[in-house]
Amino acid sequence: MSAVLSPGRSSTGATAREGRPVTSVEIPYSIACALPSLTVIDITNDVSHELARNGHKDGIAYISPADEAGIVRVNERETGFFEDLEDLLERLVPPDVADRERLVRFLVGPRTEQIPFRDAELCLGTWQRVLLLGFDGSSPGGWTLTTVG
Fold it and tell me: How far apart are CA 95 and CA 15, in angstroms?
């Protein structure tokens, strides 16, 4: 099964006001300056809702961005992650390098995440979240959920 979703809207047309918020992640000022086009959205709740709707009990969920400037990542949602990412990126791709965002996308890739699920629930760690990262300056496009199992 596959579903294509956009930020703030589920495949059924439900919006954040209906109890399934898509939340923007606060990015520290320093990394916002280093990567001004970066946008991060927590899509964990929408992915979980869509997984519960699709009817599969156990298997693997493949979550992919719907546009080429997006990346899906599973990570703890905390500012230390962004600080560590900034330190790493400054060493690998200095801020004055032309086309920095394209190089950062390449280093952060691959673009998709594969997450096992059991009893229609994602098998994530206590603090892990599914994050949709956009690098083109606008809100990231939608995402696709494909399940196997």
Answer: 37
Summarised one tens digit per residue, pLDDT across range 56-81 is 899 999 999 988 778 899 988 777 77
Residue matched to tokens 């939608």: 142
d(CA 84, CA 79): 9
The CATH number of whichever domain residue 79 belongs to comes to 2.60.120.460
The DSSP bridge pattern shows strands 143-148 and 59-65 to be: antiparallel
Domain count, the chain: 1
The residue ranking higher by pLDDT, 133 or 1, is 133
- Given the structure tokens 């086309």, which residue do they identify? 99
- Lowest-pLDDT range, 71-80, 110-119, 124-133, 134-143? 134-143
Structure tokens at 128: 């892990």
Confidence class for position 30, pLDDT limits 50, 70, 90 = low
Radius of gyration of the chain (CA): 16
Range(s) of the domain holding residue 41: 2-148
**Which among 58, 35, 32 is positioned nearest to 120, based on CA atoms?**
58
At residue 54, what are phi and psi to the nearest 5 degrees?
A: -75, -15
